[in-house]
Amino acid sequence: MNRLTAVLISVVLIVVLASIASAAETQKGTIKAVDSNAGTITFCQEGTRDNITLRADKSIDLSKVKPDTKAEVTLDKDTVKDIKEMKKPKAAVGC
Which of 24, 26, 36, 46 would staple 62 via disulfide (CB 3.0–4.6 Å)? Predict the structure, then answer.
């Protein structure tokens, strides 16, 4: 009985950790448009040509998000939880 209990607890922990890990994903791309009234952004994932409309979490201030910005967005299903602007690399200095 103890062995069975240990196996069941292990399986439950694995399932819980897997669901937490897959709950949010990060994607890089370009923010094509921002609709503050609707609370959405239009986003084109890096490596694709498809634009998708994503709902922004209420904690995101869309007035600070500008179109044609390279960004890394954190998604939970189809909701944007975080937006981080990707900085352009500095030009090399020297020879």
Answer: 36
Is 66 in contact with 41 (CB distance < 8 Å)? no
The string of DSSP codes covering 40-84 is EEEEEETT---EEEEEEPTTS-GGG--TTEEEEEEEETTEEEEEE
Q: Is residue 18 part of a domain?
A: no
Tens of pLDDT, residue by residue over 24-83, are 799 999 999 999 999 999 999 999 999 999 999 999 999 999 999 999 999 998 899 999
What distance in Å separates the CA atoms of residue 18 and residue 46, rounded to the nearest whole number? Answer: 25
Q: Is residue 68 domain-resident? A: yes
